[in-house]
Write a structure and sequence with these properties.
The structure holds two protein chains of two kinds. Chain A is mostly helical. Chain A has one domain: ABC transporter involved in vitamin B12 uptake, BtuC, CATH 1.10.3470. Chain A has a two-stranded antiparallel sheet. Chain A is globular and about 60 Å long. Chain A starts with 6 loop residues before the first strand and ends with a helix. Chain B is α/β, with parallel strands linked by helices. Chain B contains eleven helices and eleven strands. The N and C termini of chain B lie far apart (54 Å). Classes of the chains: A mainly alpha, B alpha/beta.
Chain lengths: 345, 263
Amino acid sequence: MDFGRRVLTVRRRRVAVRLEWRSVIVCAVLALAAAGMAVLALMTGSYQLSPGQVVSALSGGETGLVHDIVVEWRLPRVTAALVFGAALGVSGAVFQSMLRNPLADPGIIGFSEGSFTGALIVVLVVNGTYMQLVGAALVGGMATAVAVYVLAYRRGVQGFRLIVVGIGVSAMLMSLNRWLILQADLEQAIAAAAWNAGSLNGVSWDQVVIGGACVLVLLVLAGMLSRPMRQMELGDDAAASQGVRVSAARLALVVVGVALTATVTAASGPIAFISLVAPQIARRLARTAGITLAPAAVVGALLCLTADYVAQHIAPTPLPVGIITVMLGGGYLGWLLFTEARRRL
Amino acid sequence: MTGTMLHATGLTHGFGHRTVLDDVTLDGAAGEVVAIIGPNGAGKSTLLAALAGDLRPAAGEVRLLGRTAGEWGARRLAGIRAVLTQQWSVEFPFTARQIVEMGCTAWSGRRPAGGVGEAVAAALAAADVAHLADAPVTAMSVGERARVGLARVLAQDARILLLDEPTAALDIRHQHHVLAVARAQAATGRLVVVVLHDLNLAAAYADRIALMVAGRIEALGDPHRVLTADGLEAAFRHPIAVAHSATGVVTVNPAARSAAAVA
């Protein structure tokens, strides 16, 4: 006997927001796990703290050293991991839904390679400061994204053409980047490569507050776009028939998706793979048919924080978080392909 | 309810150097089923896309309930007309119910009188896919998926239905079922424009037939007038016999071609 899917209906003016129970529960459980992980990360370090000390420091009950360690030193990094992880998860979800491709992420539109090109040019040509490097990376990434979008444009942009053009442009930039690294002296090459691996080292409250504010605004925009996004998963024609202005919605989704990744890149360098795997893990856990934003955000946050914890405390030497996410993501990707291939047999 | 709901004049459009629509003029009134027939590449789907307002023709104008698609705006247009496109592929394993719900909560912002659940159930039943309501579309046959698409279009509750080959992948029973649904929709005062390849289905269910050849409407009118042996042979470049039964139904019998003719 079938009682249909249980759904929670929240009436808000005339629009009924339907949330599936399983998604709600999965999000809640993952959020709890992330909170637990956050407490663990705040406890761990060269000066070990107890969970009680962490909680009391967070609630303002500690002063002196414990307060400084938890609130001033460790909390910015933990917050950054959570907020930026969520941003990357949503960014990936937007791209995967829009391009109807589970292996899509903002890298598809050339952002990653473009930002690395920008960073390399600053390091090599002007030998610039860290802030200049960040600026150049953003300009490079955005310019590449715009170029890919424009090159793929022909009376509107189709997802497939965006993928093909994006892969082509990325490949060209990748070889340009290789060439630039070969031109560099060792120290410059290492500095550029270190930035490109992505790290939450030295993230300050300033960066977290500014980056977090940007992410918050962008997440709200992404939420507003989630309805047309879902309709477009049925295909452009069906979505258009149902009143979605497909081209405009797709442009808005590209802008929000790239801006989310750009914000994270500005603060921490590119943190790879979270945008690729978080929406896929979320979709499997929540068993939703399409790509949903909230579970992807929570999975991204948990994944980024966990990867950063492993990178700092479990790896034999402290590693950039980007390397751990690549390992986690690479392993996951292999598993994904393996199980999907097996299902088709 | 005899008012004109759809009015297209002088539609001309091309892709590259190829003219796909050449000065097409077509009307549709409430309560009518209009079939568009013609050989492959005659411009039927392009015409339907232009009628839907999804394709802006190089020249000419389409008015739906008196206004152009641009004047309506995408959102309100979704409440005016629903479109079933020829191919629609869904890469995500949505269930039939979820897909039809998306049609139902379409963008007009209206809510169906009896609630979304009831409207969805009615649409699923009308398209004969109620038993597949909770199955993922990715696991369905092409024919089943086509009927889910029809259910989605019905749930949109629009006054103009534009269906592009809704019977292409269906068995005999469901071909007739879908066109009976189209007739029933027309009987409630809607306009149904349907692209068909099966000339006998067009003859049996359409009030008027538009025969398209090379981007032009060669003949337009009731089935008796349009479905003539000479006209069809010229259009399809194939020998076709036409019979008129005592009950007034036109049947079309294309001749079998010998293997020698293609060798």
